[in-house]
Specification:
about 425 residues; alpha+beta; 4-stranded antiparallel β-sheet; 21 strands
Length: about 425
């Protein structure tokens, strides 16, 4: 059978041409693992007046309490300047704050330096956001140290245990640094963000229908890091395609955590073996006992593969726990936190351990898939020859959304 090096595999940026830089908060306090803490922070901000309110807000060049901006699409936050704002906190929404860490965000554009309204306009229950886990991973030298990570772990490829190159989420992703690629360009799961005619060409080569979500599933399973960016080796072999799509759909299910909740086999499911304290301060892992300790609280079994699971060189579990056990500077809005350890955090932690353990089980397929991808390849050269590539420039811009009204600064009506 013909073969191909990954050098001629199409770029992800060509197959999913519309991408958006990730939202940039500019300040940490509008996001938190606990929605009640966010409402308390909002109340504390509005109780302060004058310079005290501005100091609590933490102004930047992009946002101060005197900045006038409109509502976020689909949200009901106020549009008057924060210096004279009043009223209740906008209802917090669930977001992906860091890899595998679902938190809450106050959906108010006045609080966010770069909210990326184009992402909010296409956020709904049908949407799937694809997030690159790092920018320019292939260009990083082996000695570089990513924030919070260990030296040498950042130049990972798809066969490296440093973690996945892509994340997928149904929630708005609010994490840096990689770009965000929505699967759909419009609400309601319409107009896939794929190179025009890509699905049709794949269908002709594979002899089966190829919906957009299958293209995404395949991409999640086989994406590779190359010198020019992330690449997606494609195949015209129906059996290889089916195997990759099946693995990719499992990855999507685990990352999105929607539908049936993931479970490990009996005897391997993590449980709380010793009660977690109300305010744990330290986190440690014992590989011999396969136990995670939060002070004297104990959860086990926690497989080493779950504890060691990394994204961009940072341990996911370690970071997740650090966010909830770390402190904040007194007198800041960040310092307003739950008085104790909410039961919901324990449930989320047990599920996260399960998800990471099951994710790690898919790594052998992703490593072994390299050889299969050389079977009947669909190359970038082929896609250019048949006119699938290059995607038109319009495909790299957001679609026009004309069926919504958004309130502009100071209550003005913004027409899209």
């Amino acid at each position: 059978m013909p073969s191909v090096t990954h050098d001629d595999a199409p770029l992800l940026a060509d197959l999913m041409p519309w991408s958006v830089a990730p939202p940039r908060l500019g300040r940490g306090w509008p996001a938190a693992p606990d929605p009640a803490a966010l409402k308390a922070r909002w109340d504390a901000l509005l109780k302060a007046v004058g310079p005290d309110r501005e100091a609590l807000f933490q102004p930047t060049r992009s946002r101060t309490v005197h900045t006038a901006v409109g509502q976020l699409p689909g949200r009901a936050g106020g549009t008057e300047k924060l210096a004279r704002a009043s009223g209740p906190c906008p209802e917090p929404v669930r977001v992906l704050r860091s890899p595998f860490d679902e938190q809450w965000l106050i959906p108010d554009q006045r609080l966010i330096d770069a909210a990326r309204p184009e992402l909010w306009r296409v956020t709904d229950e049908r949407q799937i956001f694809v997030v690159e886990t790092t920018a320019g991973r292939g260009e990083r030298t082996r000695g570089d140290r990513p924030p919070g990570g260990r030296a040498g772990s950042g130049g990972a490829r798809a066969d490296d245990p440093a973690g996945p190159l892509l994340l997928a989420t149904s929630l708005l992703p609010v994490l840096r640094p990689g770009r965000v690629r929505p699967l759909y360009r419009r609400p309601g799961g319409t107009e896939p963000n794929l190179a025009p005619a890509l699905s049709e060409h794949l269908a002709a080569r594979l002899g089966r229908e190829v919906p957009a979500v299958d293209v995404l599933a395949w991409t999640m399973a086989v994406v590779r890091d190359g010198p020019g960016g992330l690449t997606v080796p494609l195949t015209g072999d129906a059996d290889v395609w089916a195997t990759g799509v099946e693995a990719g759909h499992r990855l999507l299910w685990l990352m999105r955590r929607d539908g049936e909740r993931p479970r490990l086999p009996g005897g391997r499911r993590p449980y709380v073996r010793a009660p977690l304290p109300s305010r744990p301060l330290t986190v440690r892992y014992d590989p011999a006992e396969e136990a995670l300790f939060l002070d004297e609280g104990r959860i086990s079994p926690v497989p080493p593969t779950a504890w060691e699971f990394e994204v961009a060189g940072v341990r996911v579990l370690e970071r997740w726990c650090a966010v909830r056990t770390g402190g904040a500077e007194p007198g800041t809005l960040d310092a307003i936190r739950p008085a104790g350890w909410p039961q919901t955090w324990t449930s989320e932690l047990l599920e996260l351990i399960t998800v990471l353990a099951l994710m790690a089980e898919l790594r052998p397929f992703q490593v072994a898939s390299g050889g299969r991808l050389a079977v009947d390849p669909i190359t970038s050269t082929e896609l250019h020859r048949v006119g699938v590539l290059p995607a038109p420039s319009s495909a790299r811009r957001p679609a026009s959304v004309l069926d919504a009204h958004e309130e502009g600064p100071e209550g003005q009506l913004a027409l899209l």
